[in-house]
Amino acid sequence: MGEQELFWVMSPVIVLASLTLLFARKAVYVLAGMIVVMIGLAVFYVTLEAPFLGMIQVIVYTGAIMMLILFVLMLVGVDQKESLRETIRGQRWIALAAATGLVVLIVTTVYRIELPIRDIGGMNDGGNPQVIANALFGEWVLVMEILGLVLISAAVSAIVLTHLPRSGDRRSQAERAEERVRARLNPVNKPMPGVYARRNALDVPAIDPEGKPVPASISRVLKARKQDKDGSEWRAIGKDEAAE
Amino acid sequence: MIPEDTVVDPMYFVVLATILFSIGAVAVLLRRNAIVALLGVELMLNASNLLFVAFARSHRDVSGQALAFFVMVVAAAEVVVGLALIITLFRSRQTISLDEPMDLRG
Amino acid sequence: MTFESPIIEWAPLAPVLIVFAAAVLGIVIETADPKVWIRRRLQVALALVATLAAAATAALQWSVLDGDGTRVVVDRIICDRHSLIWMVMIAVFAALAILLFSSRVGGDDAFAPLAAAAPGSEEEREASEKGLAQTEVFPLALFSVGGMMLFTMVSDTLILFIVLELISLPLYVLVALSRRRRLLSQEAALKYFLMGAFASAVYLFGAALIYGGAFSTSFTIIDTAIVQYHGREALVLVGTVLALVGLLFKLGAVPFHAWTPDAYQGAPTPVTAFMAAATKAAAVAALIRFLYLAVHRFEWEIAPVLWTIAIATMLVGTVAAIVQTDIKRMLAYSSIAHGGFVLVAVTSFEREALSAAVFYMLAYGLATLGAFAVVGQVREVTKDGSLGAEATRLGQWAGLGRRSPWMATAMAVFLLSFAGIPLTAGFIGKYVAFKAAFDSGGWPLVVVAVLAAVVAVFFYVRVIVLMFLTPVPEDLKDAVEVTESTGPSLVVGITALATVLLGVVPSVVLDLASNAAILVP
């Protein structure tokens, strides 16, 4: 496939995927759309004679940054509701008009501009990573050093905001087990969902030796969402079998 | 190396990047979920990166690629700080919506 | 392919390197995790020494500088007299702000003892009882200070972006660390972060367009490219407008000001003082360099935009400040208005404007640091008799002159300087700023500016009347207390003295500033 065909195939995909930012209700869908955008841009970078950046785009952006955001999304709960109610009346239309205006302005600006594509080739002589390394540690080395400071301050900032030092002493596992026995609590682990039941899906409670379901085997989250089952239909010995 | 007539005009990339940039900007301004707004900023930064790479090729100047690399590093740092702030606020308020009654008056 | 090692003049970077080295050393101290009181003293001493040493080094370089400046990296980072005077100013502001950071009022500093603990949680109470302190604020502030000092030397659109992030990232976090009213502080930080990230993304897109049109990110090359590459300068022009958005955001100009009141109100007061004084000075310095070195050939195209923004900024800042009932919010809107006044000078594209902007930001920054230092001293008294949060409602300031004549008098001096009353630094600042604009034919702008300044006098004087002529309300007699702790009192004293001195004998600093009115491309 030629470069031009690739452009016309990939750019609609990227634009459609990025539209999830505006129209998808759930943040997870937006994230999925963004991952498509990132990979699409990586493809463009490779065709634009920047294979190194294409790889970095996949590794750093898709692999690290997007996954980090995904982790936080899971941490704060994927169910966060978002109202699309406007805080300022007409805000939506003002923003859309401004964005459309910018696109029109740029299109009319570049419409008349021709950037000469000067003799293709020559930029990556000696290998693209090598050429970039030369630029990074030659002409731009001071910027690399400033970036080091940026990364330190970002890391320290994140630690300051989120790291809770442990207060009090840490108890060993033996001590904790002893405490549980003293308090006459269940000394062993709770059964996994589905143990001895006919199915082992997450919402099916385990069956105890008497054939009764064990509610404690189901995750609290499923109960809160009312997605758990009482287990009667998944007993090891079902109603009809018992009748036989 | 590559025959010149098959090359995509860099101005097409400018238009594509502007569309992506505008979508990202509108998302930051309109969406009330802090993480989605953060993703909007990411899209804006990526649009600029596409410009840098496309111009680097037409200028035959590898600096443009170095600049795009720098932007990726900065974006990573920015995401770290942004997510840390979001988690902090979530711990205090159990929501990350920018719409909840803010204590701040406009 | 051979590697050419770059040519870098390290010597002029010395002030910046001192600050960065101290910041990194501060992080190392944190990792060694000594006892809280040792850590705190070490960090405060390190930060104070570093900022003062940076100011001294920059001043020394000024005195030994041969010619107008040195090119640290050719076409990208330039150290000239103009950047040196900004560097000294920023370092001094930073040292005063560090004094505020380190001061304790009623045994507590302004920062949360454990920022990661949720407000009102068991962990927070425990941390507070144990007397923990988040001493990372000092290295974080130093990173920001180093970034600001570097900011004044940068002559490259992309390096400007990276340094902008270096300045902003620690600031976003510092805003979130208030000890009292933590939810307000965290919300303000997230809002500030999202708007700041948005503005820098817009700036970056502009820089990318400029790179497309001018084939370079260097200010000097952009300048020549605008003339040489006919047809492509439109790309540079669109890029310039977008890039200006990012810089004007840091300055808090209308319509990019929405973050200012919230961030200023929510942030711990020492951080507010630091942001208002130092960040604004750095933003003005970078704006001047960008406008005067890179895109001054677009003067005809962008001057109307800048004029509109300057007028809107002055009017919105002044009018909104009148209706505020919270002293921190009022000072925030007043700082927006001051951003507009300094823009009046900057938009003239005259050499005079360089020295005017320096003097204006010096006068404004000193008064701001002092004013917020006073704000940090006026405290609510809780029911059990201990000191509570800051009393920022204007009603609580009634009769402050009786409670603490010294603090109230100093506050009056700062407010008069903000208002531009003669014999204060603010008057000279406004005079030179408006004169620069007037001389270049910008008289309509000056008329609006003078009108806005006259209206602004109203709300500054209102606070003074409240402090001195209104009696203390009966129900607030024991509910408000003015503490006079050493650190803030020192800052208030220094800034008040400097404000008056600059107003009475401005010529020394004015001469220095006009010596510094040279930009080396």
What's this, in brief?
The complex is a heterotrimer of chains A (244), B (106) and C (521). Chain B is mainly α. Chain B has helices spanning 10-30, 34-59, 63-93.
How widely separated are the two ends of chain A? 67 Å
Spatial separation of the terminal alpha carbons of chain B: 58 Å
Main sheet: strands, sense, barrel of chain B? none
Q: What helical percentage do the residues of chain B reach?
A: over 70%
Strand sequence of the main sheet of chain A, in spatial order? 1-2
From the structure above, extract its key features.
heterotrimer, B: mainly alpha, Helix Hairpins, 0% strand, C: 521 residues, mainly alpha, two-stranded antiparallel sheet
Protein model, in words:
The complex is a heterotrimer of chains A (244), B (106) and C (521). Chain A has helices at residues 3-18, 20-23, 27-47, 51-75, 91-111, 128-137, 141-162, 173-182, 220-224, 239-243, and strands spanning 206-207, 213-214. Among the domains of chain A are: 1-81, NADH-ubiquinone/plastoquinone oxidoreductase chain 6, subunit NuoJ (Four Helix Bundle (Hemerythrin (Met), subunit A), Up-down Bundle); 190-243, no CATH class. In chain A, strands 1-2 form a two-stranded antiparallel ribbon. Chain A is mostly helical. Chain A is built from 10 helices and 2 strands, in the order H-H-H-H-H-H-H-H-E-E-H-H. Chain A is 57% helix and 2% strand. The radius of gyration of chain A is 29 Å and the shape is elongated. Chain B is mainly alpha-helical and 106 residues long. Chain B is elongated, with a radius of gyration of 18 Å. Chain C has one domain (11-515). In chain C, strands 4-3-5 form a 3-stranded antiparallel beta sheet, with no helix packed on it. In chain C, strand 1 (69-73) and strand 2 form a beta hairpin. The model of chain C has no long low-confidence stretch (mean pLDDT 90). Classes of the chains: A mainly alpha (244), B mainly alpha (106), C mainly alpha (521).
